[in-house]
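In the lab's daily routine, each protein ends up as an entry in a very long ledger. A line of letters takes care of the sequence, but it says nothing directly about the fold. The three-dimensional part falls to structure tokens, numbers that each stand for a local backbone shape. The outcome of that step, for a single protein, is printed below.
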Amino acid sequence: MTPSKSPVLVDGVVLNGPQTDVKVGENFVEEACRLVMEEVVLKATDVREKVCEWQPPEQLRQLLDLEMRDTGEPQDKLLKLCQDVIHFSVKTNHPRFFNQLYAGLDYYSLAARIITEALNPSVYTYEVSPVFLLVEEAVLKKMIECVGWKEGDGIFNPGGSVSNMCAMNLARYRYYPDVKEKGLSGLPRLILFTSAECHYSMKKAASFLGIGTQNVYFVETDGRGKMIPEELEKLIWQARKEGAVPFLVCATSGTTVLGAFDPLDEIAEICERHSLWLHVDDLLKKCYSAQATYLFQQDKFYDVSYDTGDKSIQCSRRPDAFKFWMTWKALGTLGLEERVNRALALSRYLVDEIKKREGFKLLLEPEYTNICFWYIPPSLRDMEEGPEFWKKLSLPHDRHVGIHEGLGLTPCSFPPKASREDSIPSS
């Protein structure tokens, strides 16, 4: 508070004074950013660094000061906490970090994230997020173009699970729009169909939306994990004989484990024959709009179609499209294509290496980047494959790994009492 101003007091609180010490805050941000640059970005690809300073939960809880107190901590202690957080976290950009779902940092999206966190926008109306809504529109337009559609609509969700739930809700709304206002009581028993190899979020979405997990019919797959169209049609007829109403088929392009692509053309023909929903059309706003008049006024001074919050299951959203946009701008479409091609080439290289090495058994030739294999320890290599062999290989003792889904790692298990020579090197 400057000396020239008289304090404005309400219940003993000064309203026209600074809420925080600006200089201290600015200095903290500067030091924290320097720490991130030194300890995360610059060390990210150093193979001499550890992937993770692993500690069991009980021990890590003792090493970190996690308690929140009545009074604030001094800046030097806060910076030490930041350093500890980095030190004990998994370094996802390390050359020896592998995960089945994601890789490490992207420099351009990191910069974009810093910008959005500093601006702290809320994406729901154009007047509060003009740039980020135009960015999202540009990314969606380009993605629709890449798919090969002439027009379309979309919105960024916080992840695939929420996207699957939204797709399920849209399909239900298409058949029974009254569900939005009247709820579930007037609906018949609805059945949706998906691959036996689908993502587990399908069951979660059915549970959350009140459809019920028992009304998710899992279609048998072939040896490569692809949905069998003939089996889909059988289940559709079965559901109808039960007096239920089929309403949705969820196909998969790249299953979680095997990386299988369902035969979309054949599935689409079945859906057309049975009037089942397989695609997303213009239902987003109709399905989710709550017409909140205090927020989505129709008489604004700009095109209100940019107020995208009314077609999202959320209201306020993070500007996730900005990270993708920044990376796309930096690399270009050809640069992103090169990343995909490199991942595919790496998967082919890995398959060749697995075939050459004793003790590694490839499950099947990959269709995508997912590589599924077993590591066979020396103690089992001379044993004939059969029920006893697979039982011993699957016993839950020392773990080994199978690489799938974009060259990530998924845990499997060793037979009991594996000797030192049976273990895989940590690298």
DSSP finds 13 helices and nine strands in the chain.
